[in-house]
Specification:
about 75% helix, two-stranded antiparallel sheet, about 10% strand, alpha+beta, 3 domains, rod-shaped
C-alpha cells in the first residue's frame, strides 16, 4: 500500500467516524428538541392555567362588583320611588290644607248656613212666596210685584210683592 492510499484510507475512516459522531449528535439534538417541545408545552400549559385561573378570579370579582352595583342601583331606584311617592302624596295634601277651610271656618260656615236655613223656614212659615231674578244688562236683583195692589209711601215708590 502506498502512502497516498493509506492517507486516503485514514481520511475515509476519519470521515466515517465524524459522520457517526454527527449522526449521534443529531440524534441527541432531535431527542433534546422533542424534550424541549414537551417542556415548552408543559410550560405553556402551566402558564395558560395560571392565566385562566387569574382570569376566572378576576371574572368572579367583576361579577361580585356588578352584583353590588346592581344592589346599590336597586336601592337608589327604591329611594327615588319612595321620594316621588311621598311628593305625589304631599302635593295634594298640601293643596288641600291650603285650599280647604279649617275646622273653625267650617264650623262658622255651618252656623251661618243653619241661621240662613232658620230664616228661610221662618219666611216660608210667614208666607214668603216672592220670586227673585237677575234683570237687565248688569244683572241686578229684581222682584216680581203685584201692580193691582197699588203703590205706597210718600213718593209712591213702594209696591207689594206678588204672592203677599
Amino acid at each position: 500500500m502506498d502512502d497516498t492510499t493509506m492517507k486516503l484510507g485514514l481520511l475515509l475512516e476519519s470521515a466515517h467516524a465524524h459522520q457517526t459522531l454527527a449522526e449521534g449528535a443529531l440524534e441527541k439534538l432531535r431527542s433534546q428538541v422533542g424534550e424541549l417541545a414537551g417542556i415548552a408545552r408543559d410550560e405553556i400549559r402551566a402558564t395558560m392555567l395560571e392565566e385562566l385561573n387569574a382570569l376566572g378570579q378576576d371574572s368572579r370579582q367583576a361579577a361580585e362588583t356588578l352584583r353590588r352595583l346592581r344592589h346599590v342601583a336597586d336601592l337608589r331606584v327604591a329611594l327615588w320611588t319612595l321620594a316621588m311617592a311621598a311628593l305625589a302624596c304631599a302635593v295634594p295634601l298640601g293643596t288641600a290644607w291650603w285650599v280647604l277651610p279649617s275646622r273653625g271656618e267650617v264650623a262658622a260656615l255651618t252656623a251661618r248656613r243653619d241661621a240662613l236655613e232658620a230664616a228661610a223656614t221662618r219666611l216660608r212659615a210667614e208666607g214668603a212666596q216672592m220670586e227673585l231674578r237677575h234683570c237687565g244688562a248688569t244683572q241686578r236683583l229684581c222682584v216680581r210685584v203685584d201692580r193691582k195692589a197699588g203703590v205706597f209711601g210718600e213718593a209712591a215708590d213702594f209696591l207689594i210683592v206678588k204672592g203677599y
